Structure formats: C-alpha cells, structure tokens
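agent> Task received from the user: take the single chain below, predict its 3D structure, and emit structure tokens. No templates, no multimer pairing.
agent> Plan: (1) validate residues, (2) run structure prediction, (3) serialize to tokens, (4) report one or two observations.
agent> Step 1 OK, no nonstandard residues flagged.
tool_call: predict_structure(input=
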Amino acid sequence: MTLRVVQVGAGGMGRAWLATVAADPDVELVGIVDLDLDAARAGAAVAGDPTIPVGTDLTALATETGAEAVLDITVPVAHHPVTLEALRAGLPVLGEKPAAQTVAEALSLAAAAEATGKLFMVSQSRRYNDHLVAFRQHVRGLGGVGGLSTRFAKAPHFGGFREEMDDVLLLDMAIHAFDSARYVLERDPVSVYCESWNPAWSWYRGDAAAAAVFTFEDDVRYVYDGSWCAPGAETSWNGDWRASGPAGTALWDGDHDPWSDLDGTPGAPDAAPSVGNEIAGALASFVRAVRSGERPDGEVHGNVMSLTMVDAAIASARTGRRIVIDEVLEQAHATALKDEQDEAIRERLASWGSVRTVAVCVDNGRRTPQRRGPRCCSSRPTPAVAPGGRRGAGSSSVSSSPPSSGARRSPRRARSSRSASRRASPSVTRRRTPPHWRGSSSNRPWWTRSPIPTLPSPNGSQRAHDWPTRSPASCGRAPRSG
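)
tool_result: status=success, residues=482
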C-alpha cells in the first residue's frame, strides 16, 4: 500500500524531490503546495502527472486529498511554520535539512512532535550513502578511534542567495560533514574551536572557507577543513575522510569504496545492509518508519545536535573562542521556552531536564559497544562542563568512592579523580574558567549566554542566522545543494 503524500515547495530542490517521489513505488504524490501556483503546476509536470492537485494552503489540500504525510521542501526560514502546521494537522513530516532556521526552532519542532505524537524526520541525505556506512564499519575495526578528519574543497558558482550569505560554507554545506562525523564516531560533540575566512579571490560575500576542531565524547577529536572557493584538485562533494585508531587507519575519498590499513594488513569488516542513495534513501526510510513505527536516522531529536554543531562553529568563528556545545543547547532551549506560544509544546519543552540527553538518547543508531550503560534520558548523567573543558557530558567513569586502605594510585589517576569531582559538581568552577567572570552568570561574557549574535532581518524580526531573506511564500523556490 502506497503512502499518500503532499509536498510543500516546488522550487529547485523541490523538483529533485518530486522526481524522486515519482520514481518510488511506495509513495503516491497527491498534492503540491506552493504560494506560486505556476511553480506548483510545473512541479506536477516534473512528477509526471499535470493533473496532480495544487494549492497554497497545506491543511486544506491535505484534507481534500486524504494525504497521510507531508514533505517539507521549503527554504530554511519556512521550515518551522510549515512543519508545525503539518504536525498539528496530525501528519508525519519528512523535511529538508536543516531541521529549522535556528536550534531554538528545531527544539520547538522536537517538542511539537512529542506533543502531537507524530514523526518529524530531517532528510540528512548524505548520511544515506553505502560508502559512508562501509567507512563506519572500517572505523569500528580500528580498536577505538582517537581522531577523525574531513577535507572538503570545491569551487561551485551557484549564483543567487548563496553568494550573498554570511558563513555560507558552515551554514549551507558543513552540516553534512558534521552530521556524518557524528554517525561515523557514534559519539556527540562537546566543544568546538573554529576559524572562518574569505580568500581574496572568493566570489562569495560571506566566509567561504573554515577550519574547525571539535572535541567529542571520550576526548575524540574531529577536524574539519573546508572551502567553497578552492578551484583545482577538488575533493568529492562528500569530502575526503581519514580516521585513526590504535590498530590502524581508515580512509574514504567520498566517492569510492573505503579501505583501512591495520598495521600493514588490509581491513575486512563485515558488510552492512544498504541504506539507499541520498534523498531516495531518506524517503524510503521515512516510509518504513511511518508504516512500522520504528525510529529512523534523522528523527528530529537526534538531528538537533548536528544543527547545534553549525551554530557553535559560527559562534566560535565570530568570537575567537572555544564554544561549549551544552551552552548553545541550553541557550536555545531558553529561547524556545520564551518564544513558544503553543501551551502543549511549551509544556513539553519545560518537561525536559538536560537538552543533551533529550537530543542524544533517541538517536538509537549511534550507540557503541564500548559505552558503559544504556544511552537514555533516565540513566545518562550530564555533568556540567565549563568553557575550555576537554571531556564530554557523561564521559567520566571514575568512581567517587575513596580508594581502599593502602591502595596506591598513580598521580595521573589521582588527577583524573579530582577532575571527575570537579565535573560532577555544577557549583565548582573548572580551573580553566577565566577568573574575571567566575561566579554570577551576569558577569560571564556574551558568547556563553548567546551562541550567535542576533541579526536583524529586513522585516524587523530577529534571526540567529543571515539566511536568505525570503519569506515562507518562497516555498523552496531557490536552488539548494541538499
């Protein structure tokens, strides 16, 4: 039985989705929503059936056509209102990345999914790549991982809004690599230091190059080095990847089969099932999830962390400081609570304890065998980490009980125990905390309270990112890299 869907957005990326939907035998396109009805009719032709109903009102068209789900293929500024309308109408949603324009809006949508009991999945399409899955299998064979790196170098001339965006590389492309790093490492980020710049020959107004060092749980490092104005010897659109561990190194060029060198012996990990290809794979995963009730990769709670990595990297680049991921999450949570108008959604937001545990406990495809205990909200503690801290939330495994009489501890273990005690107590300030803002939060610099300087939009509202200044009426008409 096919899944009846209405798609919102018939622009550049929307047309790619319409063709994908038309090619999937498990999906039936029953309507197209766009404020530009000519674009919607053109989209129907792309889908192979000019008689497909079109309209400008999502709820009305979904009711009229008996739709069972919604595809939100709009520009980022429209993601929150479109997805929220669909969830309130009782319809599960598959949306283009990012989940929303800001982390606060993404948290609002996560709470809306809880309040309505409907699935909201984000199409992080480059995670649907069998070569990436195979690369993770090779990384698992390294006996642990200490470092992962991605080198990305392309020189596309998009024209249009991208060439006018601030932080264009980090906002529009790096999220793919950041999300893939979480998938490969099977861990979540703790902090980031990032620098971004715009080479003299760049045809972009905003920074088109960036270098970031993320500290992940278990003190693992992820290094991203990317540029969108690097002509010659370009990498794959997926980037060039390298992971190192105690048993060897794994490599992936982004386009072909990955491989690993285990101290002179080629790695031969077990094959993993196919996940499909990019947006077609994401669509198939969504259909299975709607029909079976299983939680797919990209479910909004787990995807929030990938968007948070982008916000934190931009905040670091703008302030020149290391940014702690939990600071960004908690600030976004406070903003979401303040701005939320729907009482049911606000109650869900207020019911959360640690935003980190809400974000990671549901990302069930990323648990490692080495973890101590289940990765869930009820059992996974999140010790406070001040800016500059090296260890991740919940990463300490040092017992708080004193050593037995006569036990001898090495200086290194003693230091670890003292560090664990400091991390376990929110009232104790880490040694690396700058002395001039210890104590009251009012004395702390702005970058620990607001992850990204708020920029005014042309209509007077406040937005955390300088996304293209288009309204929800655009409904995805600008081409995007996906």
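agent> Step 4: summary for the user.
Residues 300-319 form the longest helix (20 residues).
agent> Done.
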